[in-house]
Amino acid sequence: MLPLKEKVLAPAKLNLSLRIVGRRHDGYHLLDTLVVPVSLYDELVLGVVPAGSSQITVRCDSRDVPDGPANLAYRAAALFLDSVEQDFTVDIGIAKRIPVGSGLGGGSSDAAAVLTTLNRLLGSPLSDAGLAALALELGADVTFFMFGRPARARGIGEQLEFVELPDRPFFVLCSDGYPMPTKSVYARVDLSLTSAGPNSNILTFIGGRARLEDVLVNDLEAAAAEIHPEVLSLKARLMEEGAVGALMTGSGSAVFGVWYELHSAVQAAMRLRGCGLWAEAVHVLDAAPTVRS
Predict the structure, then answer these.
(1) In this structure, are 186 and 76 located in the same domain?
(2) Which pTM value belongs to this model?
(3) 191 and 46 within one domain
(4) Is 141 known to be catalytic?
(5) Domain tally for the chain?
(6) What confidence category does residue 2 fall into, taking pLDDT thresholds of 50, 70 and 90?
């Protein structure tokens, strides 16, 4: 077997609507969220060589990303090799474009890209169901990225119902670089202020009965703003730049604004970058690049 290498793109995600609908006995919060992959990518290069024993290396151009077992991509490779019971040297190079700790899912997307790409390079020893089981061990967002399509996600995020979006807006993502501590955000959520019922905003939007900007909601936003109040300031800034609506994604700290005209979104992102913020104009993907039929 010759050495194998492949370059892949791992997209970011946005939570267009996120409600907390309860909590499991083990402490995990139950979600009802509309999540979509978008056109912002980490770039990964995976190399695979047969070996007498498995060895995994991770290299990244960001100092904020660990290079060992603390890295989710490393853990994905280790879990895959254990599952197929084969020994390989796996080298993972990551060009980090998705901000760390932003709620945009970069680490989970990288892990999903590693799982799907290793499986493809090695002749698909695992079925989609087998890969999904590994993904869930790593995290619910990894499961979403493995399929990489717009979806309504429930449970802890692992129960996926793929959807068609009636609107195709553009988004400007914006961050001041603050790495939001996800566990701290969830710990601050006041369940008395959330609803145990289904997220009616999702049904209203995907049913074509409302525009996206009219149904934006994130039950984690208030908790995140207690930790980093600038989340709300960034939302206001997006509205000043011309967004028709704005919201924090996931557990933060990145926010996004909604536009229906690409040129205006691109110009807004350029102005925000000129003020020292990180900003990118993106669109929704029908399927992640790492997902191949």
Answers:
(1) no
(2) 0.95
(3) no
(4) yes
(5) 2
(6) low
Selecting among 91, 141, 219, 235, the annotated active-site residue is: 141
* Interatomic CA distance for residues 161 and 168, integer angstroms: 19
Q: Which pLDDT does position 196 carry in this prediction?
A: 74
Domain boundary among 114, 133, 162: 162
Q: Are residues 138 and 174 in the same domain?
A: no
In the chain the beta strands, taken as DSSP E runs, fall at: 4-23, 29-50, 55-60, 88-95, 151-155, 159-162, 170-175, 217-218, 245-248, 255-259, 278-283
Instruction: Give yes or no: residues 138 and 212 share one domain.
Output: no
Closest C-alpha among 116, 160, 117 to residue 140: 160
Q: What is the pLDDT of residues 164-203, one digit of tens each?
A: 999 899 999 999 999 999 999 999 998 877 877 788 899 9
Token reading at 140: 């619910």
Domain that holds residue 230: 170-283
Domain boundary among 162, 191, 226: 162
Q: Which residue has the tokens 């978008």?
A: 38
Mean pLDDT across the chain: 94
Instruction: Single out the catalytic residue among 13, 32, 42, 96.
Output: 13
Spatial CA neighbour of 90 closest among 9, 5, 1 = 5
Q: How many CB atoms lie within 10 A of CB 249?
A: 27
Q: Which 3 state secondary structure label does DSSP give 24?
A: coil
Identify whether 111 is part of a domain.
yes
Q: Which has the closest alpha carbon to 39: 173, 238, 211? A: 173
CB 275 within 8 A of CB 41: no
- pLDDT tens-place string over residues 144-164: 999 999 999 999 999 999 999
